[in-house]
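Worked example

This section walks through a single chain of length 82. The input is the sequence exactly as stored; nothing has been trimmed or padded.
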Amino acid sequence: MRENYEEDWTMISKLMKIYSPQHFDLKVCTYELYKHCSALIATRCFGWGLPSTIVAPIADSFNHHSKAYTMVDIVNKRLHLL
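Given that input, the structure is written out below as tokens.
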């Protein structure tokens, strides 16, 4: 996995240099930040294949226990029957 990170970072850092400072602050966009963000996304994937797989990094912010005191209620009228 480390080799993949390093290989990807080589390509990404070249692109960021082309588009900085307009889109990227190279002082902030570091290899360490890239590894952290990549790990966050790669380790928060739920499902067993398309089309039922979802990347949900926010899921790590909540307790998955059914009696948890933490609760998220998202209401989207297009997704609920009246």
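What to look for: The mean pLDDT is 75.
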